[in-house]
Design brief:
- By secondary structure, the chain is an alpha/beta fold.
- It has 2 domains: 3-193 and 375-391, Rossmann fold, CATH 3.40.50; 206-373, Rossmann fold (3-Layer(aba) Sandwich), CATH 3.40.50.2000.
- The protein is 43% helix and 17% strand.
- It contains 14 helices and 14 strands.
- It has helices spanning 3-7, 26-40, 81-96, 111-125, 143-162, 172-181, 228-235, 256-266, 280-289, 304-311, 324-327, 342-354, 356-373, 376-391, and strands at 12-16, 44-50, 58-61, 64-69, 105-109, 129-133, 166-169, 187-189, 214-219, 245-250, 272-276, 292-295, 316-319, 334-337.
- The strands form 2 sheets. It has an 8-stranded mixed beta sheet with strand order 3-4-2-1-5-6-7-8, with helices on both faces.
- β13, α11 (324-327) and β14 form a beta-alpha-beta unit.
- α2 packs across α14 (376-391), α7 crosses α12 and α10 (304-311) packs across α13.
- It is globular.
- The N and C termini lie close together (10 Å).
- The model is unreliable at 1-8 (pLDDT under 50).
Length: 392
């Protein structure tokens, strides 16, 4: 990097991520906000991601340039191993062909497939590589579903992680899991954040609402990981038969049809709305209309959904997973229950449904804590400091 740019603390950065909004999930959201914040701080940021539909192949927004590859992707909200492999191959070929400006540092989101795409380029061109682990790329994560995949990809995964200049997980719990999988690499932590301008409490405030029902909300991928089956069974309990409530389930995934059928079998389909995958501009309205977010996941790194809900002043009922316990304090900005504990989940929901002052107090506290701890600008400064140390 030339001296003038170094002295100005500006760098040319490349973000590799197979998903980037408006497509993808939590990893895409993280890369979007970190790229935007670093570009605002004067860095030149290129993003190499997957194209979809009519999205333009190149989009420039000030210091931020998004390059969308012609790699296959059937659905905006989820991707399969074949699509991920295609991204790795096409992205690696694009980088090696010199179609992207040579960066000072490459930052990949998910060691596989994004870190795998960056690895040959960084190795051959001598560019430092920062690997950000997100959950599914860490052996031991979702063992009942991903054990075979992790076993097959472990040699490649270790190659990517061990050759990186730095490797960071998004929560303390995920870091501990990654440290066991990659014992020869010191794993750090870069937590998620939330856009406090995009996600904020509704107007008029919930304390002034006059309506005859409680609106519950779930947001996330529709997979067994998220515990939606436990939530549906909890809401079918007799204690809720006389309550006026609605439940919105926002997201897409392989278990969608299964959970629609479960809601029918439980006799609550008339109160449950399945709304599919949504872009942020539509998702914000769901947060605004809700009284409580319920997030009964079985595994999490650092859930963006919970961060977004707290920034919107929503009390959250969630399970004690790795990242969630760093966001929520039981009885302060939400309720924490044990994983797969249907009776406890049901009791926590009833408590917040029946106690309006408690919901308001928890929601106000949730927003205050989000302002104090969870801004993306703070996360960007942490990453910027690491980048500067690596460059030096």
């Amino acid at each position: 990097m030339d001296a003038a740019r170094f002295n100005a603390r500006m760098a040319r950065l490349l973000f590799c991520n197979y998903e980037f909004p408006p497509i993808g999930g939590g990893g895409g959201t993280c890369s979007k906000y970190l790229a935007r914040e670093l570009a605002r701080r004067g860095h030149m940021v290129d993003v190499l991601t997957t194209g979809y539909g009519a999205l333009p192949p190149v989009a420039r927004r000030g210091n931020l340039t998004i390059h969308r590859l012609n790699a296959p992707r059937a659905k905006p909200g989820q991707s399969n191993p074949k699509e991920m492999a295609a991204y790795s191959l096409i992205a690696a070929a694009t980088l090696l062909a010199g179609r992207i400006h040579k960066p000072d540092v490459v930052v990949s989101f998910h060691s596989i497939p994004s870190g795998l795409a960056a690895f040959p380029y960084c190795k051959l061109r001598g560019v430092p590589h920062i690997s950000l682990l997100r959950g599914g790329d860490v052996p031991g994560w979702l063992p009942e579903r991903m054990a075979t995949w992790h076993r097959l990809t472990l040699p490649i995964n270790r190659l990517v992680v061990y050759t990186s200049a730095a490797c960071l997980a998004n929560s303390d719990g995920l870091r501990a899991l990654a440290q066991r999988a990659f014992p020869r690499k010191k794993i750090g932590v870069l937590q998620n954040g939330v856009d406090l301008r995009e996600f904020s409490p509704p107007s008029p405030p919930r304390s002034t609402w006059q309506r005859g029902y409680i609106q519950l909300l779930f947001v996330g991928r529709i997979t067994a990981q998220k515990g939606i089956d436990v939530l549906l069974r909890a809401m079918a309990r007799e204690r809720f038969a006389t309550w006026s409530w609605k439940l919105d389930i926002v997201g897409d995934g392989p278990q969608l049809a299964e959970y629609v059928e479960l809601a029918k079998q439980l006799g609550i389909i008339g109160r449950v709305g399945f709304h599919g995958w949504m872009q942020h501009r539509d998702l914000r309205k769901r947060y605004d209309d809700a009284d409580v977010l319920v997030f009964p996941s079985r595994y999490e790194g650092m859930p963006n959904t919970v961060l977004e809900a707290t920034a919107c002043g929503l009390p959250v009922i969630a399970t004690r997973t790795a990242g969630t316990v760093q966001i929520l304090q039981d009885g302060v900005n939400g309720r924490l229950v044990n994983i797969d504990d249907e009776p406890a989940l049901s009791a926590a929901i009833e408590e917040l449904m029946s106690r309006h002052p408690l919901r308001m107090r928890m929601g106000d506290t949730a927003r205050r804590i989000a302002e104090e701890k969870w801004s993306w600008s703070a996360r960007a400064v942490e990453l910027e400091n690491l980048i500067n140390r690596i460059i030096r």
